[in-house]
Amino acid sequence: MDENLYFTQQKDICKRKQLKELFNQWIKQISTCDDIQFPDDGKKYPTTEYFVKDGFYPGYFSGKYPKVLFIGRETRGTASFHKSKDRILCDLEYTFKNSPNKIPFVRRIFYIYYGILTKGKYQFCDIPYPVEMVKNEQYGFAFMNISKYSNDSERSVAANYNLINQFFADSDLTKRNFIREEIELLDPDIIITANLWDTKIKQEYLELVFPTKDFVEVKSYKNEAILYDFQFNQKKIKFIDAYHFSAIGSDGENFYEPIINLLFK
User: How far is the C-alpha of 94 from the C-alpha of 105, rounded, in Å?
Assistant: First the structure.
């Protein structure tokens, strides 16, 4: 696909180029690592076959709204589904057009983003469906996974933590912290993570990206989400860790309301 159909603003184009350069260096790093066995066929494939790029959607750098970055654990089925191996282009070409209402993970991000755009003005029952937001091109947020290795196994319905931890090991962040460099390029005002800590991701890896010393807890909401002040380089960022966006629960009560209340109430 021609990404210029979607990315037309000069700053978006420039930032996409910078991210591509970062990903190329990242791919060069992991290409030196051992092949990874794919569980469905038992064969080993190069690490570069698993790597999926991400970043931001059109309008993120427009300057009209707070820059919101959502961070998940891993992408699912993207490496083998979309030839670009680019989560952003896959969403713009397929997911957003065909099924934004149907996929809980995507649907909840849209709801939360709309609440942030409107500064918490609307109750959950009054906000539009994601398909309407797509029609109005209201998707100017950023999205990245903490692991760029795509979990494409049809056998698994859960996160592949062995693969996620392998990605951290292969990236060798102690030599060059690619994840923090990506966040720096995205320059968010708000970061919302999908339950990264209460998982089997090794804590020493998360500490390399999000050092505990850089967080100050501000408040929590019904034990469903926690708001922190996060010091990233020279910038203080509002940082919320919430339930994973695919978890069982109410879109409004467990996802939209906790985050919007923490930010605006």
Answer: 15
Which of 228, 217, 227 is closest to 261 using CA atoms? 227
| 178-186 and 10-30 helices, crossing angle to 10° | 180
How many alpha carbons lie under 13 Å from residue 143 in its C-beta half-sphere? Answer: 25
Query: Do you know the residue count of the chain?
Result: 265
How far apart CA 70 and CA 52 sit, in angstroms, is: 16
What CA–CA distances, in Å, run from 15 to 7, 62, 139, 168? 10, 12, 17, 24
State both tokens at 54: 């991400």
Give the 3-state secondary structure of residue 74: coil
In three-state secondary structure terms, 189 is: coil
Q: How far apart are CA 79 and CA 82, in angstroms?
A: 6
Beta strands at 225-232 and 235-242: parallel, antiparallel or unpaired: antiparallel
**17 — phi, psi (to 5°)?**
-65, -40
User: What confidence score (pLDDT) does residue 145 get?
Assistant: 96
Both tokens of residue 113? Answer: 């983003």
Structure tokens belonging to residue 174: 């102690």
Residue type, 55: G
CB 174 within 8 A of CB 33: no
What's the pTM value of the predicted model, to 2 decimals? Answer: 0.95
Which residues touch 9 (CB under 8 Å, ≥6 apart)?
Answer: 58, 59, 61, 62
Residues 175-224: tens digit of each pLDDT: 999 999 999 999 999 999 999 998 999 999 999 999 999 999 999 998 89
3-class secondary-structure state, position 138? coil
